[in-house]
Amino acid sequence: MYNEIRGLRNHPTYIIETSWGALLILVMLVVNSGQQFVDLVKNFDATDQEMVRDLIILLSVFFLYNGLMIFLSFRQWKLTSLSIVDGSLTWEQNTIFAKKQEISVSTISNVNLEQNIFERIVGTYKLKLDTSSLSTANKTDMKIILGEADAYKVRDLLLRLMHGEAAESMYTDGPTDLQNSDLDDAEKETTNPYGYACEQEDFDIVLSGKENILSAIASLDGISVYFSFWMIVAGIGGAAILKLSGGSNGESIAILVTFLFVAAGFIKKIITKALDCFHYKVRRKEDHIYITSGALKIRSYSVPVNQIQAFRLKKSLLGRLMHRTSVSIINVGGEKEDVDGQWILPAVLDTELPEMLSKILPEFQITDGKEMVRRPMSVLIRKQLMNVISKVVVTGLLHFLYFEYLCYEWDLADWSYNSAVHIVILVFGAIWMLWDGLQNHVEQRTEGLKISEESVSIRRGKLDWEQVQISYDKMQMMKLSQGPVMRVLHTRKGQVRVLASTIGCVQKLPEMSEAVMSLLRERFQATID
Amino acid sequence: MYEKRNPKARLLLLTSSVITMTIVTVGVVLVLIFAEISETWIRNLMIAADILAWVVALVAPFVRYNWYRARFTDEEIDVRQGFLMIKETIIPIERMQKISLETGPLDRMFGMSKVVVYTAGGEETIRFLDEERAKQISESLKNRINRYAVSKREQDMSVDQQDTTMNQQEESENV
To answer: Is A122 at the interface with chain B, CB within 8 A?
Structure first.
């Protein structure tokens, strides 16, 4: 079994993957402009001299630029290499801006494999590494494109080193042995504990197609639902107003269709989520969780349990109605959709969640909402008062703005429906006030804290909520704050910081009584002492 | 016990407020002169806002100084500060990764410095310290961080040794 890797390069398809734009432009130039140019030269006339010269210059610039992009990609492929020696990973780029990164294997938090559509066609994998470094908390530290065999071998070696497992023999393959090697049948049966064969073991949880679709719908966030709802309202309202103010049927229908089209954007979100969760499988092996999922982009993630900084349950508005909750973990690293934490369970049924979680994360116990200490009633009273005052002020301002300014600007001072505008503004203000009042009430019943000896569970949200559980030994710092009104009401709010990305590192505490916050602070300080 | 506050801090805060407000007021005056705002109520609103900002700028330094507290124990740092919103930050020594000593131009004028502590979850600034005192605190925190790192390393090594001993015992039993 190998214990080192030296001088491993990206797969040759890296050149195509990084410069496909330039290649496409070159091909299009040749196909579209090539024949025109040849015809122009054949029928050359003295009056065309300037045009031909300009065309030559333009085509030359395009060819040179795109050719340069392709050459740079080739150079980057040729001069970039990965080595894993003595428990340390070296990523070296000897291009114009030379860079050499040395990463200790002990700081690696995630070793993930991904495959987009192009990579699936050519049979390559993108290996992504994240470390526990705060400076790269919002991005992946290193990415390399490898053939299937190499990708699994590198992952196998890294995970063995992370587990501190000694190799049976010190055997180092030369770079040619690992370059573009194929997995043969023997290797598919290999004893590499984290290699290809490991992907074929039984998974602890596998989601069916129907569960996948239901979890995608339940994952839709409240903002998308509200946005779609208000787009439909705006579409109907806009079409009606246009018709009433003398517009044609066609214009009204066009407005309505446009808004309905925008509202249907939530369908795209459901489809994207369903594709991400397609063929979802998860398994716990020793101190790692292995997740595989994806239709267009296949992801094969390995998450070390000891690098988990916090554990999050999320329930959207639709999730509440469908009784489904999703689970994600907060750790450092990851980019794009993973920057706020990696999900490990899509929205599954609440009745099945405890059993599923016990299989993959028995370290974490779900805290029931009923065990939580809720916000004091004084906070709700204050919020409702502010709600009423703010809506009265905004409605008054809208009224003033329209009747004292806009109706003159738009020449609608004598519009026969101005009295209806009064009512529309008042109704709009009333609906907005009732909606926010309802949300404040739901927030009062949702938000809370559970402070135990070793960890704190924080629940926040309104119609959508999330619950984050953080051990005191993972907390980096705690900030508590109190404004002038809170001093009168004897409440405080605050935040806890963990090692994670910019979004994930700050976990807000809801506004709670001083006694509860003091208890939380004491428990945190007791862990330090 | 909380760190004793340096009275020069009030003067520093006041100077900073006055400089900021002077720049803002010059900006407002230039807008009023050159922007040709015809509406009287807008001009009056701008002047009233500027006057209110001056009042706050002159009062805030004293309120902020009054609220400010910093405490250092063997295990943690506790900093309390703010104007309207009072914030209290608790940072365990064992979470600290880096210490930085900073002195701005105004700090230099009043013989003061700031100590900035960094953790994996963010940073916090301890202000209103004498230059000497800031250096002492910075050195003390650095030594405590190093001591903690050494003891953690020793702990990890003894755990590793115990594991190795147990593995060797198991192997000899198997043989």
So the answer is: no
